[in-house]
């Protein structure tokens, strides 16, 4: 899940598990499937109880489904552990109803769909980690097994499928105080970058870091808007790596995805952002970067907007 | 201490494994002597570690039994209370496996007598990362009831749990120069030489290709404990009198990070985190690889340590 009003990380995979959010805006309400050109199709196939001695799965109408049982058991055989294929780990909360929601979700392949599926949220605002699998073919769709825990008395629940859909077009934001860039109806402006001494921020030590306020100058709320920035050097190339003083440099070896800041052997993680304190995020963000703003010409800007699909009446028990 | 004949018989069995046992319960005078027991392990330096029982755990019930397989309602209540109080705590159960909580009464972890309990692991060496604890033990000064989640083949009837016991024999601060020496426990440790190199090809800083300048401190030990040379560990004290936190690629200590956003960096400086030295050897002559320029170091803290293993075997996975 992407935090509300965040500036996205670039070239990195953020750990987004178990974050909590308030779902304020619902774009569509469905019982078993949703499709749009931007997001592709997301389907709720059913729900399973994997903690019983005999696994039980049922469809969205609550009818026991041998076919779904088979599909889920087959999938669990490829479950991942940290060092290879192993037994799937099923999260269990004592004295709660523990279920696994089975979704068929779109995988971005090529340019379709353009929207990014960012996971399933529960009605409590949690974003549970789906059960992970060792290897999956890069098909257009994949099965996602999402653990949910509810009060034992509940018979149905609500789940939210989250997408981030790009606004068409991109823009260039000059690395200059007061510069602006517009993508669709969204315009952002750059504030005065502030150099932060090493050791004062949680990321990118020990080199210097910069904070740059990025403000929305668009009318209306930016609550569900994510701005993604990629640094561009003075020759017009995307910045792939920086030296200890924040100057763009050629990477030590060809870049591979994803680049983690913790990788001791790979090229350094180059550019990222951190969202500012939450209250301010409706109007702007604070970019944290280890790329010296004075050493770049600016940033390529893309904008994504949340799309939230509500799945209602998800049955937590089969019809007997 | 239990001196009954039945206990003696139970404890005698593991002798066949070639491990060391002394006394009625497994009691060791040799600090490095590993032990295999069924119920209880006790030593002067650690205290008493006892198997309390095992439990099944389902979403609706936690049911425990004692080491003989007899129902242990008090233990069940204790563990249930923990999960009720810790509402929402997830246990990740392995799908298709026999999941059990193995419960121990543990001695204080505050190391009052020179040894402290390390992590529990399986016979295969995998650490048991899911555990719960009740009581002042934990990391305090009293005994604790602690349990660890294990998983076994569904047909398996018994399991084993292995504890690491970390033993320490004191420490001393000495100047960073050849000839410095200290008596740690019964052993005199002497710095024989400090030589530059071998440098590391990589560091964990912003430019890993730069390498990490390193010095080799060779120390000698004039004796053994229990017939074994303990391992020499150490840390470097900087000119500010504090343990060196991180160093540049050339070995110069860098300031400890400050600020409200500080989180301990992981491998992100030249050499980040407390500069901890461990020879990893059990010989009369040991080498410490030190990433700090000796001319910039105020002192070095040397300590002697080692580990032994205590294996609890024949733990019943089901009640009788």
What is the topology?
The complex is a heterodimer of chains A (320) and B (320).
Chain A: E1 7-8, E2 28-30, E3 33-36, E4 40-49, E5 56-58, H1 66-76, E6 80-81, E7 84-85, E8 89-93, E9 97-106, E10 116-122, E11 141-150, E12 156-166, E13 171-174, E14 180-183, E15 186-190, E16 194-196, E17 209-216, E18 225-233, E19 241-242, E20 248-249, E21 284-289, E22 296-315
Parallel strand pairs in A: 1-18, 2-22
Antiparallel strand pairs in A: 3-4, 4-5, 4-9, 6-7, 9-11, 10-12, 12-22, 13-22, 14-15, 15-17, 16-17, 17-21, 18-22, 19-20
Chain B: H1 5-12, E1 26-27, E2 35-37, E3 40-43, E4 47-57, E5 62-65, H2 73-85, E6 90-94, E7 98-106, E8 115-121, E9 131-135, E10 144-152, E11 158-174, E12 181-184, E13 187-196, E14 215-221, E15 231-237, E16 246-247, E17 253-254, E18 276-278, E19 285-290, E20 299-316
Parallel strand pairs in B: 1-3, 2-20
Antiparallel strand pairs in B: 3-4, 4-5, 4-7, 7-10, 8-11, 9-10, 11-20, 12-13, 13-14, 14-19, 15-18, 15-20, 16-17
Write a structural description:
The complex is a heterodimer of chains A (320) and B (320). By secondary structure, chain A is mainly β. Chain A is 3% helix and 41% strand. In chain A, strands 1, 2, 10, 12, 13, 18 and 22 form a seven-stranded mixed beta sheet that branches. In chain A, strands 3, 4, 5, 9 and 11 form a five-stranded antiparallel beta sheet that branches. In chain A, strands 14, 15, 16, 17 and 21 form a five-stranded antiparallel beta sheet that branches. By secondary structure, chain B is mostly beta strands. Chain B is elongated. Mean pLDDT of chain B is 79; it is low at 1-28, 203-209 and 258-274. In chain B, strands 1, 3, 4, 5, 7, 9 and 10 form a seven-stranded mixed beta sheet that branches. In chain B, strands 2, 8, 11, 15, 18 and 20 form a six-stranded mixed beta sheet that branches. The interface between A and B is large, with 38 and 45 residues. Strand 8 of chain A pairs antiparallel with strand 6 of chain B.
